[in-house]
Amino acid sequence: MNQTLDRNQTSSLKIISFFLGQQVFSVNIMSVREIRGWTPATPLAHVPRHVLGVINLRGTVIPVIDMALRLGLAAITPTERSAIIVASVRGQLVGLLVDNVSDMVTVAADEIQSVPEVGATEVQRMTTSIIAKDNQMISHLDLDSVLDEVGELAA
Q1: Which of 3, 30, 63, 135 is the most buried (most CB within 10 A)?
Q2: What is the pLDDT of residues 60-113, one digit of tens each?
Q3: Is residue 5 part of a domain?
Q4: Does the residue 6 lie in any domain?
Q5: Domain that holds residue 18
Q6: Do the domain assignments include residue 2?
C-alpha cells in the first residue's frame, strides 16, 4: 500500500534518515520508537534471508530485519556504527538493522518529490517519495510495504 506523499497535502514531514551502504533512506519519525546500538540477534529457522532473528527488548521479543538485504542490496556487516531502529509496523515492534543513522530532520514540502517511473520494481513499490535535501537524494520508505510479511512472524 504505497502511500504517495502529495506536496499539496503536507507542509512538512519529520524523518529519520539512515545509510545502507552509500545510499540514504528514511522513514517517518512517527513509526520510530527508539534507536539502539547493534546487538546480535538469535537466529530463527525457516524465515526469509533478510530476517536476522530476534532480540529481547526489555522483555519483548522482536524480529530484526537487515534493511539492506530487504531492499535487494548487499547484506550489512555490523560495526560499532551500525544501529537497530526499533519501529512500530501495524502495531508490532520490529528492529531495522542499518549501517548507521544519519539525521532526524523536518523536510519541507518543496523537498519532497514523486518517485520517477523507471519500471515496476519491488523497491519502487516500497518507496513513497524521493527527498532532495542538502545535496542528497533520500529514498523515503513505506514500512508497511517494506515489511509486508512481518505479521507472519511468530516472534
Answers
A1: 63
A2: 999 999 999 998 899 999 999 999 999 999 889 999 999 999 989 999 888 888
A3: no
A4: no
A5: 12-149
A6: no
